Amino acid sequence: MYNPDLGPVKGAAGAVSRNLKKGALVVLESTVNPGVCEEIIAPIFEKAGQKVGQDVHIVHCPERINPGDEKWNVINIPRVVGSLDEAGLKAALAFYQDIIEGEIRPMKSIREAEAVKIVENSFRDINIAFVNELAKSFDALGIDVMDVIKGASTKPFAFMPHFPSCGVGGHCIPVDPYYLIERAKQSGFDHKFLKIARETNNSMPAYTVELLQDALNEIKMPMKDTAVGVLGISYKSNVDDVRESPYFKIIKNLKNYGVNIFSYDPHVARLSDVKSLEELLKKSEALIVVTGHKEFKEIDPKIFEDNGIKVIIDGANCLDKDAIKKTGMIYKGIGR
């Protein structure tokens, strides 16, 4: 189910191998598991009659980008480069140093370069899983996990804050750990820790819907036929990218309960069920916030109250919990 699809990479390598000049520099930026360049890409060129290290120089420089980040962009984010041969490494360093302002770090091997991106995103996945598990625990203990994280963040060393949510999305974090899990399995190693992290983060959409069910039970409302507005479709705030968004799993879970669903995302109009936030609020009895868009953070809690909203499940932990609870509405965040 989670095996990486290397079809596009193989197809691109095949096309390039048939149309390159001798001595060409070929750079793979796609995220791949360690060993892909040596075990899959290089043989494609060799089969086409291109001797690696002479006719073609194969290099890996994993892409780094943070959508919506106003500080870090393609030009200034540092990069790492690995190559199958020394000449290719020097050529790649010169190429990237000419177009990127950030530091370009040479790696000792191409496998190390391939592993870097997997480690970066697995690190984030594991730490997000940790706080998601804390969120579930603190829900049971009556502790606000966000306050705890803010408190722990006052330590100036050895702590890096990560935050819980209704699920992990995007084209990297929910996908990349499986690359290492599956490749390591082929070599006889079982990544138990990575698999547990993935299981924890994959459980959050269903957990979010459970919070809704618990909240409705408090006011003796059934899930079936309740009008639920879902705020946010994209996986990340203030962008329109929906890849691997937890929204889709949340919707699937809600449909299993027979809920009447209305979705709205100002950044993803093509998938929204209504044309405006106002329309969604008028139709809804309860809300689930999936994405912490600025448009949602700015909503005055009184507007929720005026529209008869009874329950708010803040899957992005982006709303003012205290202000909402003062109105008498039921508020449940992830670990809040």
Describe this structure in words.
By secondary structure, this protein is an alpha/beta fold. The chain has two domains: 7-115, Rossmann fold (3-Layer(aba) Sandwich); 203-333, Rossmann fold, CATH 3.40.50. Helices cover 44% and strands 12% of the residues. The protein is built from 13 helices and nine strands. It has helices at residues 7-17, 36-47, 86-99, 110-141, 145-152, 176-186, 192-202, 204-218, 246-256, 277-283, 294-297, 301-306, 321-326; strands spanning 24-28, 56-60, 79-83, 104-106, 227-231, 260-264, 286-289, 311-314, 330-333. The strands form two sheets. Strands 6-5-7-8-9 form a five-stranded parallel β-sheet, with helices on both faces. It has a four-stranded mixed β-sheet with strand order 1-2-3-4, sandwiched between helices. Helix 9 links the parallel strand 5 (227-231) and strand 6. The two termini are 33 Å apart.
Features of this protein?
single chain, 336 residues, alpha/beta, Rossmann fold, 2 domains, 5-stranded parallel sheet, 4-stranded mixed sheet, 13 helices, 12% strand, elongated
How are the secondary structure elements laid out?
Blueprint: H1 7-17, E1 24-28, H2 36-47, E2 56-60, E3 79-83, H3 86-99, E4 104-106, H4 110-141, H5 145-152, H6 176-186, H7 192-202, H8 204-218, E5 227-231, H9 246-256, E6 260-264, H10 277-283, E7 286-289, H11 294-297, H12 301-306, E8 311-314, H13 321-326, E9 330-333
Parallel strand pairs: 1-2, 3-4, 5-6, 5-7, 7-8, 8-9
Antiparallel strand pairs: 2-3
Helix pairs in contact: 1-2, 4-6, 4-7, 8-9
